[in-house]
Structures are given as structure tokens and as C-alpha cells.
Design a protein that fits this description.
The protein is mainly β. It has a single domain, classed as Jelly Rolls (Sandwich), CATH 2.60.120. Helix content is about 15%, strand content about 50%. The longest helix has 19 residues.
Length: about 130
Amino acid sequence: MSRTFAWILVAALGVAIAIVAAGRSASPGGGFSELHRGDIAGTDDLEVVMGLIERADESTSEKHYHPGGEFGFVLDGALTLSTEGQAETTLRAGDSFYQPPGEWHVVGTTTEGAKTVVFRVLKKGQPVVVGVE
């Protein structure tokens, strides 16, 4: 990972934490809110999508994957992560995770709900999320 890209991720995480600390809701009723999308310097075909995911208590996502890698940091609450070929993991505020490109997963929350900031690195033109049947 280039030093410039690492600094972009650190700065973006700081912005996301400040948004949550200020009490800004990502979207009414929860869900994904795109906070920033931008090209990755030094590449012609890659971009990063930063988002805030807010999940209500005891909710579960559909089975899905991301065409590019996903880096996440749990800001508040707790979530469960069920990933292809692995046991379910519980992540709490302060925990981070990485989902490799194309690896399906299901995200659930406990009675606390959860707020998570994610950075998805993908080729331009790819969808951010792909459902799995």
C-alpha cells in the first residue's frame, strides 16, 4: 500500500469518526451512506468508496460480496460477520476487519445495532455490492 493511500485512509477515518461523534445520522432508518468516492492516485482504474453503515438492532444483511476489497472499522455497537468457510465472528466498537474481493459474507447486529465506516477499493465501473443467491 502506498504511503499516500495510507494517509488518505487515515484522514477519511478521522472524518467518519467526527461525523459520528457529532451525531449525524447516515440515513433515515439506517443503511449505507456514501461519504466519499475518489480516484486512487497513481492508478488509472482504481477508486475508493468510503461509507458509513448504520444497522438497526437485530438486523441481518443479505448474503453478498464486494468486487473489490473492503476495509471496515466498527465505530459503535456490535455486529456479527459470517464469512465463506469461517465461523461467525463478533466485532465490537474499536474492532476492524477486511473482506477480500469476491468473498461472500452476511452481516448481522446484536440488540445494540452498529455503526461502521467502510472503505471499498474497486475498479472504476464495478458495483460496490453484489448479492448472492
